[in-house]
Amino acid sequence: MTTLVGVDVGGTFTDLFFLDEASGTFRTAKVPSNRGDEAVGFLEGLKTFGALSALGSIVHGTTVGTNALLERKGARIGVITTAGFRDVLEMRRRDRRNTWGLWGDFTPIADRDLRVEVAERTLADGTIRQTVDPAEVAAAARALADAGATALAIIFVNAYANPANERAAASAARAVWPNEHVSVSSEILPEIREFERASTTALNAYLQPVVGSYLAKLEQALESETFAGAFHIVQSNGGVMSTATARRLPVRTALSGPAAGVIAAAAIATAAGYPDIITGDLGGTSFDVSLIAGGEAALAAQTTIDFGLVIRSPMIEITTIGAGGGSIARVDRGGFLEVGPESAGSRPGPVAYGQGNDRPTLTDANVVLGRINAERPIGGKLQRLDVEAARRALALHVGEPLGLSPEAAAEAVVRVADARMAGAIRLVSIERGHDPATFAFVPFGGGGALHAGALIADIGLKAALVPRFPGVTSAMGCVMADIRHDQVQTLNLVLDGLDAGALDRRMAEEGAAAHAVVAGAGLTVGRIDVVYELDMHYLGQTHTVAVPLPVTLAAGRTGVTGDIVRQAFEAAYSRAFSRLLPGLGIRIVNLRTAAIGRRPAIDLAALAPDASASVAKARTGARPVWFGGWREAAVYARLDLPVDAVVEGPAVLEQPDATILVPPGQRARVDRFGNLVMERL
What we know:
Elements: E1 3-9, E2 13-20, E3 25-32, H1 38-47, E4 57-61, H2 64-70, E5 77-82, H3 88-91, E6 115-118, E7 121-122, E8 128-130, H4 134-146, E9 151-155, H5 164-176, E10 182-184, H6 185-188, H7 194-224, E11 230-234, E12 240-242, H8 243-248, H9 256-271, E13 277-282, E14 287-293, E15 296-297, E16 299-300, E17 303-306, E18 309-311, E19 315-316, E20 319-321, E21 327-331, E22 337-343, H10 362-368, H11 387-402, H12 406-428, E23 440-444, H13 452-459, E24 463-466, H14 473-480, E25 483-494, H15 500-519, E26 527-538, E27 545-549, H16 562-577, E28 586-598, H17 615-618, E29 619-626, E30 630-637, E31 646-648, E32 651-655, E33 658-662, E34 666-670, E35 676-680
Parallel strand pairs: 1-4, 4-11, 5-6, 5-9, 9-10, 13-23, 23-24, 30-32
Antiparallel strand pairs: 1-2, 2-3, 7-8, 11-12, 13-14, 14-15, 14-20, 16-19, 17-18, 21-22, 24-35, 25-28, 26-27, 26-28, 29-30, 31-34, 32-33, 34-35
């Protein structure tokens, strides 16, 4: 047992959750982020819990990789590839950003003059037609380094079927490359699909220097504070990995921060009796949405961070829009009000922060409407917020162009932001066949609970479940997340005549390798589960279905048989398409292996209000809040409300890490875990 701290570094705030595993006690902290040098806020937040030398483990959810991809601020990379395959990154899947027009506008992350072809060829069945010349590869690597490339990707066609040529090339390149930043496709993604493998490998190389230097800076800072514990990173799949793995596979951190929040929200909501939820992480820059059915977060085999930037690696399905507290409001040339995606971030931040920004944000709108307490801003750094400056900015940039008062302009900004958030929620629910009326909304991040009531009304959600500490939910998810390692290998086997023994040996090898990675991570786990999934289809099909196998690794065997595989495929195919295609052959395309180190469960009852809590103690007064006009709203200290307390709107509930708005026509109830359940009257 040890002490753990989860750290979520966002664009505006750095959130921290401290857990003492032995006693079950916890603490939270929230400090401003330092954009450009995140280590400053990282260390400042950790020091609020005392000496770093006393901490056992730190688990970090980072957005460094995400931001580098979105802003195209990764490394200058070189690519060595098979002759004739230099332009795979441009060709993609023959998709285009805009449907119309003669010319595309996509620029690959690797300049064309930094993509070098070498003579080699491996056929699709694994046969090597032409052996690679290591001297040619070494010369190409030297030329790319001399041209300014700081990271290298080696991507040979059909390397998933036989990696021999690629391994020889990697050995030759590493012998002359000036640093450790060499990504090899058969090591990153040994899976069929040429573009996806090329894109994932190139993006891994693109992120290696950025993520590597960031982690090195954090580790040096921790070392200077005599921290001797374990330091881990949250993956996009919701699991945790070592910093060594993160340096080698930084592409797996692309959705690190948002994934941690989804993990915590799923655990909190399931314990509270809401296994079907839609999460909404509203931070300073973005609104991240994910749907959880039956208490399980959905994993996608691949995701697109931005147009053409495809990552094929298991990730929690998260939809992101540029609508955060720092999102800037403006009236475009057509007279339409827009909110985001441009953000004021933490510096300068909203106008009300008084740090130099003069363009209004969503936070400024909430301040002007009385929904945020200007005298006690969250985060602890600012003494008060400048309401008048926010009013002037809204009047100038929104009110005057649209002929609205400052309050009406602020309300318009909030409504536009609410509409964008509602659209994202409909995208992950209605458009995927789910009825939002059967789902509860779980808002987190500093601003999510301000908009929960409006989303309940707009979409018809069942309820909203506001966690006890919504502003630090992602940080809490960092300490709750299991340790996880995923592997994939293309098999290309026909089910008829399957050599089950050979498949069993292959699965055992993959499972043992994944198990070893998790076992060596250095965090306390209750057990390590090895789970298997196959990508399969009928012969002649191009799409595959994910087929979970009801087997696991035990005593060096899985016990898989052809009948087990067939039954699992038919069950999965029927679920997906409501029918089978009898008489057609079946192919196993990929084997996916995951080792999951199950972390000890956190007793969420520890988050419940103290026995001395009372509604009378929690009531701190009242203030005018705008709901189409000024109305008197009761104000409560949320953390002082007792279990089963009921608050009817209009009301504002305040706590150090977030503000919750209960609009007229709704009520909020405190459950036994201290969560706030909001429902329509």
